Amino acid sequence: MDSSTSTAVEKLCSIRGLLIYESFLKNWDNVQAFQANPDDIVIATYPRSGTTWVSEIVDMIQKDGSAEKCKDAIFNRVPYLESKNEDVFDGVKQLKVMASPRLVKTHLPADYLPASFWEKNCKMIYVCRNAKDVAVSYYYFHLMVPAHENPGTFPDFVKKFMSGNVPYGSWFKHVKSWWEKSESPRVLFLFYEDLSKDIRKEVIKLINFLGKKPSEDLVDKIVNHTSFQEMKKNPSTNYTLLPQNQMNQEISSFMRKGCVGDWKNHFTVALNECFDNHYKQEMKCSTLKLKTEI
Ligand code: A3P
Predict the structure, then answer these.
(1) pLDDT at position 88, please?
(2) Which runs of E-coded beta strand occur in the chain?
(3) pTM value surpassing 0.90
């Protein structure tokens, strides 16, 4: 592919109230009709919540800790279900030709996931990250992915984020949709902040959830292979295999900072107060509690 080809800004379209990229919408019928297999494993997140991190951990678990078997690009090993982009991605097409057990990445809220995944009782992992760090990370993602409109200043972007006027809509609705499903033993609800605080514990949780034995050797291998430093320099996880017209990593790295609490470097006191008030309103009826620092 010619990496100098420029990418047009993608329009956002609404599907039943959810904002997604226009090219994804064109493929929506194929996504909704997708036929799951009972052993598919779904990794669902709001964008910039640790999808790639947990995808790499899960694939390492499936491959019994063999980094050698995880050499292909993460977007080939864990196809992005609803993605459809002429140049690079077609999640449905990729998954259809993939051998089982398949790993499936999605950013869809629980109520938008194709029905077949629920009917087949697939295992699902949801990774949730605190809204303020997501907003920061998503802001840089908007700057570095040319398909996005210029997000303006950070406060401008936060306002859009609060009102859900960004791809995949409201963070609040998204996390609540999955939190409601988390009572099911088939849904494992994880927090980015817990992964940051005690990766061993969360890796063991994932290994148990996937029905494997958490031997010390396996846990060690996974923890080492999926550290921020390792994943940042690994071309199969750092997205440097994508051409610059898809992701411009000279503007910002895909693997940017990988920490909890970077929001403190971006939110002014006034913006933080405004965000906290909005947050309280949106989350007042929910039992979901997130940490914004560790
Ligand atoms: P930052 O922009 O805050 O650095 P996603 O994969 O859902 O797009 O999420 C990307 C975010 O997860 C980025 O956050 C990225 O740095 C972080 N991330 C990816 N791998 C990580 C790892 N191994 N450890 C910590 N954070 C990681």
Answers:
(1) 73
(2) 12-15, 18-21, 41-45, 103-106, 123-128, 187-191
(3) yes
